[in-house]
Amino acid sequence: MPPLRLSASLACADWLHLERDLRAIAEAGVEMLHIDIMDGAFVPNFALNLDMMRAVRRVCTLPMDVHLMVEAPERYVARFIEAGAAYVIVHQEATRHLQRTLAEIRALGARAGVALNPATPLCTLEYILEDLDLLLIMTVNPGFTGQKLVPATLRKVAEARAMLQARGLDLDIEVDGNVSFEAAPRMIQAGANILVGGTSSLFWPGASISENAARLRKAIQTDPHAGEMDKT
Ligand code: DX5
Ligand code: ZN
User: Fold this and answer.
1) Is ligand 1 within 6 A of the CB of residue 153?
2) Of 54, 60, 97, 102, which has the most beta carbons under 10 Å away?
3) pLDDT class for 222, splitting at 50, 70, 90?
4) How many CB atoms lie within 10 A of CB 71?
């Protein structure tokens, strides 16, 4: 399994103190920034954008994984890479020519990712696995922070890791949505190696980013039930 990494979901940061939060994220040793882009069509909401990415770049060098919750994302791939995306993640459900879109992301020098909504089966990826660097398994329906986990998605993570191993592929599996202190250990155990930290963990309002990051690391370094006992 590729190395374990945390990706801070910037949509959950305090935008009035964004620079402060970015420094806290980097100081806490968080490895990546998760950038949610929503177009008000693929999902019924709006989120971050290209200008915001460029502003973030000026004070933070962490790699950005850009999650495009956007219809026909192939229209915008090049612009997100220009704005600094290290990973561009498109939804399987949003692009008609998935293989071409992934190949274009790689050709432009970024890593190519696909996201699957909770209802979308893994078999849709059968013929594009070689074109992939990262698989993002949505553990909630995309579009909003603070939602409940869709339990069947844990089984999907386990089946995805098994499918990749059977094909001899060591890709990143990222999980996004309600990655809580309690759920994170189970997600790792199922085979995820990148956790998107949102309001349920890194930006949990009851503690600071650095305390939340430490608590999340502790939860995933111990056994899968540690988080439940640690509940406050
Ligand atoms: C949507 C977002 C959220 C986000 C929220 O696609 O990416 O799922 O990370 O994190 P939570 O669920 O912890 O508020
Ligand atoms: Zn996301």
Assistant:
1) no
2) 102
3) low
4) 15
Residue 229 has pLDDT above 90, yes or no: no
DSSP for residue 201: T
Element (H, E) at 10: none
The answer on pLDDT for 176 being more than 60 is: yes
Distance CA 142, CA 127 (A): 24
Query: Over the stretch 22-66, which tens digit does the pLDDT of each residue have?
Result: 999 999 999 999 999 999 999 999 999 999 999 999 999 999 999
Domain boundaries, the chain: 5-230
If one residue of 7, 90, 196 were mutated to test the ligand 1 pocket, choosing by the most ligand atoms within 8 A of its CB, it would be 196
Residue nearest ligand 1's atom 5 by CA: 145
Ligand 1 site-directed mutation target among 6, 7, 9, 89, most atoms within 8 Å of CB? 9
